[in-house]
Design a protein that fits this description.
Layout lengths: L6 H8 L7 E5 L5 H10 L6 E5 L2 E5 L5 E4 L4 E9 L9 H16 L17 E3 L3 E4 L2 E11 L2 E12 L8 H6 L9 H22 L5 H6 L7 E5 L6 E8 L5 E5 L2 E5 L5 E4 L4
Parallel strand pairs: 1-2
Antiparallel strand pairs: 2-5, 3-4, 5-9, 6-7, 7-8, 8-9, 10-11, 10-14, 11-12, 12-13
Catalytic activity: biotin + L-lysyl-[protein] + ATP = N(6)-biotinyl-L-lysyl-[protein] + AMP + diphosphate + H(+)
Protein name: biotin--[biotin carboxyl-carrier protein] ligase
EC number: 6.3.4.15
């Protein structure tokens, strides 16, 4: 059985790193991002974390809902204040690297590999903010800048722990959950530890310092893809990864286009 979130267990799992975070576990809230945004505007320190057992009005990218029933998801938000001059370009991709590293370190309940040095769990990343497992969506990332404070960001992360019994067929076909059962406190501690490390790298060198790690986990590298938008026809091309700013590189008719808009969905496409 997955152990419930508990602030005392979480601090113990974090060890000495616990002093870097101010963590609150809520039984229920509308949106952890909304809660942390409010606290950020009131002057909360960097490292403020709110994690919820149940989220009733969570949101994802492009205004989509992320509703988390009790025990279905691990949903939390982290406030991080960067030094002036740090630009947010590529931040959601950098956070994806941290999430993937954490999942690989804890094994996420998957069957261990025979080689002790190999991770027992390997997450893939999809531009700009999705975490995939075996080609299906395991979770997502939502970055929101704090109004009036351009160097402060609220980083929201949601991971499926189990799928609800009743789901629309199109969602069930594209979603997945963490395999096996594990202690949520161990998982969250691993995520926060990796986030601290990655965000320090990001502050020092931007996304360029993490680009190779992201590309190593890229789900659609050199694959045919379609870019979908609510406001224009689909665009097809070959995905050539991302640049040092986190822009998607799409090859169309032999030319590389940089795609920066996060209001676009990326999908696999049949070879042309």
């Amino acid at each position: 059985m997955t152990l419930a979130l508990d602030a005392t267990r979480l601090v113990a799992a974090l060890g000495p790193a616990s002093c870097r975070f101010d963590i609150e576990v809520l039984p229920r809230c509308d949106s952890t991002n909304s809660v942390v945004l409010g606290r950020a505007e009131a002057g909360a320190p960097s490292g403020t974390v709110v994690v919820a057992e149940e989220q009733t009005a969570g949101r994802g990218r492009r205004g989509r809902a992320w509703i988390a029933a009790p025990g279905d998801s691990l949903t939390f938000s982290l406030l991080w204040r960067f030094t002036p001059g740090t630009l947010p370009m590529g931040l959601s991709l950098a956070v994806g690297v941290a999430v993937a590293r954490a999942l690989e370190k804890v094994g996420a309940g998957d069957t261990p590999q025979t080689t002790s040095s190999a991770p027992s769990f390997c997450a893939a990343l999809k531009w700009p903010n999705d975490i995939l497992l075996q080609g299906k969506k395991l979770g997502g990332i939502l970055i929101e800048l704090v109004p009036g404070t351009p160097h402060a960001a609220v980083i929201g992360i949601g991971l499926n722990l189990r799928l609800p019994a009743v789901l629309p067929l199109d969602v069930r076909a594209t979603a997945t959950a963490l395999p096996g059962a594990m202690d949520n406190n161990t998982l969250l501690a691993a995520l926060l530890t990796e986030l601290r490390s990655v965000l320090s790298q990001f502050a020092a060198g931007g996304f360029g310092a993490l680009r190779a790690d992201w590309l190593a986990r890229h789900a659609f590298q050199d694959a045919p893809v379609a870019l979908l938008s609510d406001f224009s026809p689909p665009r097809h091309g070959i995905c050539r990864g991302v640049d040092s700013d986190g822009a998607l590189l799409l090859e169309v008719n032999g030319r590389i286009e940089r795609i920066l808009s996060g209001e676009i969905s990326l999908r696999a496409a049949a070879p042309v």
